[in-house]
Amino acid sequence: MAPTHEVTNQVPPLVGHDVSDDPALLESLRREGAGWAEPDVRELGVLAGTERVQEWGRLANEYPPVLRTHDRVGRRIDEVEFHPHWHDLMTVAVEHGLHAAPWRQDRPGAHVARTAKFYVWSQVEPGHTCPVSMTYSAVPALRHNAELAADYEPLLAAPHYDFGLRTPSTKRGLIAGMSMTEKQGGSDVRANTTRAVPTGDGGYVLTGHKWFTSAPMSDVFLTLAQAPGGLSCFLLPRVLPDGSRNAIHLQRLKDKLGNRSNASAEVEYDGAVGWLVGEEGRGVRTIIEMVNNTRLDCVTGSAAAMRYGTVRAVHHARHRSAFGVPLDRQPLMTNVLADLAVEAEAATTLALRLAGAGDRAVAGDAREAAFRRLALPVSKYWVCKRCPTHAAEALECLGGNGYVEESGMPRLFRESPLSSIWEGSGNVAALDTLRAMTREPESVEAFLAEVDLAKGADSRLDAAASAVRRDLGDPSEAQFRARRLVERLALVLQGSLLVRHGDEAVADAFCASRLGGDWGVAFGTLPRGVAVEAIVDRARVGQ
């Protein structure tokens, strides 16, 4: 080989590592009551780090789903064709209980364990976690109709991925989707025009157009439509009990920025048959059970994406040299890497705390339910909002190599804005925070009580918490100031969790920068005195 083709100073591929080898994740898993699940989480982490499984994720994105509206003789079929590795990813996710399995497990920490697995496995390929998340989230909404829940919940929670159009009664497991938004309303679902007409035998016939239907290949959908009593929630199967296809027509698949492996569709209900979930006129209140749980997965998925970007930036800097010195030992790069790691650890710790609150709320803990009511939209707003900025900086750490597809970083970057948009964009999450504070003041009390558990441990956190209390006491222009308020609420909550439970160097860096005011706009502006080398060392994986 000619000397000009000799390759030096390049970074080895990051394969063969345990994706779950993440101190913030494992420490939170144990603390939140699911230490018993660590062997399962690590098993999934080892699988996620293999070259074979990483190739599954690449190919599922390289060859996105294709819509087949008709068969060769013109019959309507409305099917979506996926790359085979999409089904491999789904099979692993379902068999490891990332879907609705925790709802059928009478064990403390079941939802925390599931969140940890979701965090690990989504780092292989986040697109397929959309139907997984909605299957998980459908169960509490479906329980508003005890008869439907009895029929469908065991199949939604079953450890079997059974792809194909058949009646639910003939399948070993089901996947659920959600169909809420319409062209004229978007997040304002009360503007929906889809109509639901009672049939007299307990069913309804739905007619209308849905602008964004998640996972249209799912077996059942929760959807919103205008019934005689107002906006209501309905369960629609793709295949009816008699074996005929429901009149759910896929008009087109969305050509999306990211999330390429996952299908999202415009759907026409042309007299589709459905059954009421909850009461007529209370559709939003019913389906919000589903939305709240998918919001948790938005936070978890964003935290996982930040971990993914951090690990790859640190790995690159560890093996790449400039001016004769490894990048991760050059002060400016070390500052950037440490700042990325701090953000990722804060997000991970918060996501697992939310999962723990969900577990305890399910068990009947009213205090934890109140805390979760406010902490969830606060976290959804902030963590998901931070993800694109974090992804851009992590990509930049790889330089030009990070800008090419083979690095995996462009896929991360394209995916990064999704969770901030999905299940309510930033403004929706901020307004939901204000709504919780007004309608459920006990949620504010529970939130502040959580923050106060770290009182006296760090003066910068104490000062920030006091400032938040002053903000909460000023009702003027609440909506105009909502984003600023929610940001501060998120930061003091993350700071409290890190001071109480996190690594000492990470907690100090977080308080010095995010709360202490000595921080710039971009990542890599941590102040003097922060133990950046220790933080970066903590973020290393593999060889």
TrEMBL record:
Its cofactor is FAD. Keywords: FAD, Flavoprotein, Oxidoreductase. PROSITE patterns: ACYL_COA_DH_2. It comes from Saccharomonospora cyanea NA-134. This is Acyl-CoA dehydrogenase. Residues 1-20 are annotated as: Disordered. SUPFAM superfamilies: Acyl-CoA dehydrogenase C-terminal domain-like, Acyl-CoA dehydrogenase NM domain-like. It comes from the Bacteria. Belongs to the acyl-CoA dehydrogenase family. Pfam families: Acyl-CoA_dh_1, Acyl-CoA_dh_M, AidB_N.
